[in-house]
Amino acid sequence: MTAVSSPPFRFFTTLDAMLMRETSTKVVACLALFTLLWLAPETLFRLTHALLDGRIALNQFGELLLFSLPGILEQSIPLGALFAGIFTFRRLSLHLELVSLWNAGIPLSRLMVPVLAVGLILSVSHALLQEVVTPLIGPRYETLKAHAGLSTTRPTSFATVLESPEGRWERFFLVDNILPADDHKPLQRVFVLDYAPTGMLSTIRKADTGQWDAGRGAFQLNNSNTFFLNDQGLYMGSQAFASDWVALPQRAYTLLTESLENPKQMAWARLSRYIDLLKANKQPDDARFFEARLAQKVWIPVAAIVFLGLGCLLGMEPTRSSKAYALVFGALLVFVYSVVTPACIHLAQLGLIAAWLAAGLPLVITVVVGLLFIRLRRRLERG
Predict the structure, then answer these.
(1) How far apart are CA 18 and CA 137, in angstroms?
(2) Which pLDDT does position 215 carry in this prediction?
């Protein structure tokens, strides 16, 4: 008997077009499903409630809904790719098409070429979302949410410490209420604590509002009260000022304005600068957290193409199988990835693992678990 030889490799054959069309169709359907699952519990419900309450108009409802999609797609693309691969190859398996292709001498590695081409498009699309689309419309989306009373991510306070070259605290600056940057309103409820060379508090200032003066490199405090303490920290008296000045480094004001926006919506270069500001401002926990988020900008687009390939392997079930192992294991993989990702980011924030490892480890763990599921499915199928 003569062995069947593999056909010569050709680019973009009819088979490639069929597989790309089949995979793309499943990708669109799965992305729509996962996007709806992310939208419905919170965003869609809150927007509908605000619309019915009259807090937003119909055009604002549509705009908020549209602007929320890029952030949701960033989360749903890798998981949608996983199930797109499962559904594509499960259909090919159950309809005997996969067996026919193998009998024709077409290896699995050749079948994966058009599928992974779709995965590459997904990866590039994800990168464009996080680096172009989200940074462009993110600030507008946050402003619309704030004006509609729907914002949940805007910080409510800001603090920075001014240290001496020896590392001794000289000044602690706290803003209790930060308003949106585009409102051009003064900061509200500002507190300033000054320390003596001995390390004891010397003055405490409390102001109703404060505004940054770039020319003087200082905040102007309005309607402030200054409380004086002696070397032992005992209260000695107070004085009211209509206007007072507090000098701070430019980096402190820059970090304050940056923190008014959502760092999760920043592009690579800007998020890198934000991390440098956090480090300069002695906020290592926040810096490590966003270093892990920065590393995710590399790993998550990679996850899209890897998950698509993993889904294809999971979807290759026996012909005419009545079991739905692939779908069950796919749902379990989504659970594993969703649990491991925040856990790894938290470990990075605590400084227990490196940021790049925290970003890539969830993908590695999910792939390993997925391969174990494939072996488990084969054993279950054999009985």
Answers:
(1) 35
(2) 82
Q: What is the reported pLDDT for 295?
A: 94
For 189, the domain range is: 158-261
Q: Distance between CA 172 and CA 159 in Å, rounded?
A: 7
Residue 266 falls within a domain, yes or no?
no
Successive 10-residue mean pLDDT values, the chain, 383 residues: 52 83 92 79 78 82 85 89 93 84 85 92 93 87 75 65 82 74 65 87 88 84 88 83 84 78 84 88 88 94 94 82 81 94 94 94 96 88 71
Q: Which tokens go with 338?
A: 């969703």
Instruction: Tell me, yes or no, whether 19 and 146 share the same domain.
Output: yes
> What is this structure's pTM?
0.79
Q: Report how far residue 172's alpha carbon sits from residue 355's, in angstroms, rounded to the nearest whole number.
A: 29
Kindly state the helix (H) or strand (E) to which residue 237 belongs, with its residue range. strand 235-247
Domain count, the chain: 2
Residues 131 and 243 in one domain: no
Helix/strand/coil (H/E/C) assignment for every residue in 164-227: CCCCCEEEEEEEEECCCHHHCCCEEEEEEEEECCCCCEEEEEEEEEEEEECCCCEEEEEEEEEE
Of the candidates 381, 337, 317, 321, the one whose C-alpha atom is nearest the C-alpha of residue 82 is 337
Residues 85, 309: Cα–Cα separation, whole Å: 7
